[in-house]
What we know:
Structural class: mainly beta
Low-confidence stretches: none
Order of helices and strands: EEEHEEEEEE
Number of strands: 9
Shape: elongated
Amino acid sequence: MIEQGRLVSIEYTLTLDDGSTADTNVGGEPLFYTQGEGEILEALEEALAGLGVNDEKRVRILADQGYGAVDPEAFNQIDLDAIPAEARHVGAMLVAEDPEGNQRPVRVHEIRADGVVLDFNHPLAGQALNFAVRIVAID
């Protein structure tokens, strides 16, 4: 049974409200996490607590319990020359690195005559998350 401190492996598919699949590991390697260590979304951990091997569960996580609301302060305009030519289109995904070397995904939000607007929000910010999970193993 899934409880605090146990190593859990899961198979999952994450879909968004528009029906698109945002992520899945079905048919691949399971995701391993330690229950209670904050390695996956807290709301998902809570929903899986008490399940056993081969149990399946559908979990809906609202944006405020997932990656939060879209933060309007997380949009920044930079010079067009700072973006590679192949990424100069809306929706292009880039990786930004802070002075400490931490990396995070960044999305091209808008192309303007005087620059590019980048969205530093998590790619799933503002979205409800719909998980279909199967418990593969519990150690």
